[in-house]
Design brief:
Largest sheet: 8 strands, antiparallel, barrel
Strand content: 35-45%
Number of strands: 8
Radius of gyration: 20 Å
Order of helices and strands: HEEEEEEEE
Shape: globular
Number of helices: 1
CATH topology of the largest domain: Lipocalin
Structural class: alpha+beta
Length: 155
């Protein structure tokens, strides 16, 4: 009887430890799959995966592209410049360099955002909203008084 109790206790301990480890490695609210919503059309244009780079800053890569009703699906970054010109959208890094604001852990600063439709690169900052389910991204070109606001939805 004592042997069965020890074995049962060991199994429970292992299960709780595994669940705790999984929860602690997935505690970063920004890491994961997000659906992008275009601020101009209101349509979801792509799905991205946010992860961290080797410098512990956030990056977002496109993993799926949708078409806008009435328009052809964009497959490449035809308006991009330099090495990104005509690169496939799937696999493209569209957001990079974001880091946690040391004054507010719900805000992220110092990033850049590539708009694959226009090829324009914007300065970007972001804020988690709705208990981490939405990411509000504000981007603008350097020196511009106004910019774009978009929302990504966590899947």
């Amino acid at each position: 009887m004592a042997m069965k109790f020890k074995l049962f206790g060991s199994i429970i301990f292992a299960a709780v430890s595994t669940i705790s480890l999984a929860a602690s490695t997935n505690s970063d609210p920004l890491v994961g799959h997000w659906k992008t919503i275009d601020d101009r059309t209101g349509y979801s244009l792509a799905d991205v995966v946010i992860s961290k780079d080797s410098q512990n800053r956030y990056i977002a890569k496109i993993v799926h592209v949708r078409e806008i009703p009435g328009a052809a699906r964009q497959q490449t970054c035809s308006q991009c410049k330099g090495a990104l010109k005509d690169q496939p959208l799937v696999g493209l890094t569209m957001l990079k360099g974001l880091s946690i604001n040391p004054d507010n852990e719900q805000e992220f600063i110092n990033g850049t955002l590539l708009d694959p439709v226009s090829g324009q690169v914007y300065q970007a900052r972001a804020r988690l909203k709705n208990n981490g389910r939405h990411l509000a991204i504000h981007s603008r070109t350097e020196g511009a008084p106004v910019g774009r606001n978009m929302t990504w939805i966590k899947e």
